[in-house]
Amino acid sequence: MRILHVVDSDGLHGAERVLLNLMDIQEKMGLHPALLSLGDTAVGPKDIEIEAEKRGLETHVLRFRNGLNLKGSLKILNSARSLRADIIHSHGYKGNILLGLVPSRFRKIPIITTLHGWTSIHFFSKIGLYKMLDSIAIRNLDGVVAVSSAILQHRIIKILRIRPVVIYNGIPKLRFAEKDFESEFPEVAAKSKNRFKILSIGRLSPEKGVDVLIKAVASTVNRGFDVTLVIIGEGNERPRLTQLISNLNLSDRVFLIGYYDKAFCFLPYFDVFVLPSYTEGFPITLLEAMQAGTPIVATRVGEVPAVLDGGRFGRLVPPGDPEALAKGIEEVYSNRQEAKQRSVGAQERVLMEYGVEKMVQRYVDLYHTVIHRKGEVN
Question: How does pLDDT run across 65-102, given as a tens digit for each residue?
């Protein structure tokens, strides 16, 4: 089976890593996955293209003008035909919208999409508009996958009567010893020595709630807890967050160290992993923290409560509440033995329930179903 994965990526985030891991296993199964990376004409090589080629995955690049570009839609379909794809698997707004513009009878090749999570927290925003167009477009595709059962509860999903299949994300067995935090960031490690160490990994964007976490740390410090926070990730919120850190006099305790490849390697070094998001689909960083055996404090969003079994395997707090987040961190600080027991259970759960092989097999089964159904229609 020849599978063409279509994506317009702006970095190597959770969804991109899921996609590349999916392709890795598909190739090992004897299938033939290929990546078609989209982008504007002015864009150079993308991180996902570089990483895919590094892994030895077949990679193709397609650049065209942004927007509702019908020519772009046809270029994607022509690429799929020239590569003899049996199915197109779209990941994200751009592929979904452009492919959904083309009537099914003209496409011939079956198309499915994965909803990795709608990140907008404001309807009247650029991403909010994309979400609306995306939801309309995917009605015209041959199959829709949601990585979280919480996505099924989106109002727009119900209004448009879209019926996604839920396929949970999975991750491979990780090698945490590849990188050492103290060696990579000696100055930050020196300033954090003998302190309770908090880690957060994610984009510096509004929906990730990093400002809420920084305010929570300020409250924790004001109550006498000796903590330090390291945030790994990059984004357009950096200037605002840097100013917030300065305003709260946390410059010697909170460190924005930017994007770092394989940041999961640092998880065992920290005392707690915090996921402060306002919205999530199925966060890969959560699975990584579980596999590392690092205690977790996370907001009650998306599939997070289900993965943590309602709080059995990590502390759950409401989103957007710095005090609740601070108290969650303080509970781990004050009850480290109990937190460790939770993390051991989380480690066992992630290895049993969220392996990458289970995820890949469910996708392959869906491919066969959609191809067969499309063939009957044609």
Answer: 988 888 999 999 999 999 999 999 999 889 999 999 88
Q: What is the pTM of this model?
A: 0.86
User: Are domains 2-168+356-377 and 176-353 of this chain identical in fold?
Assistant: yes
CATH number of the 176-353 domain: 3.40.50.2000
182-215: pLDDT as tens digits: 999 999 999 999 999 999 999 999 999 999 999 9
Q: What is the CATH number of domain 2-168+356-377?
A: 3.40.50.2000
- Phi, psi (rounded to 5 degrees) for 293: 75, 25
> In Å, what is the CA distance from 308 to each residue of 76, 203, 312?
39, 22, 6
Report the pLDDT value the prediction gives residue 118, as an integer from 0 to 100.
Answer: 59
Please indicate whether residue 149 or residue 263 has the higher confidence score (pLDDT): 263
- Express each pLDDT in 334-358 by its tens digit: 999 999 999 999 999 999 999 999 9
Domain assignments of the chain as residue spans, ordered by start: 2-168+356-377, 176-353
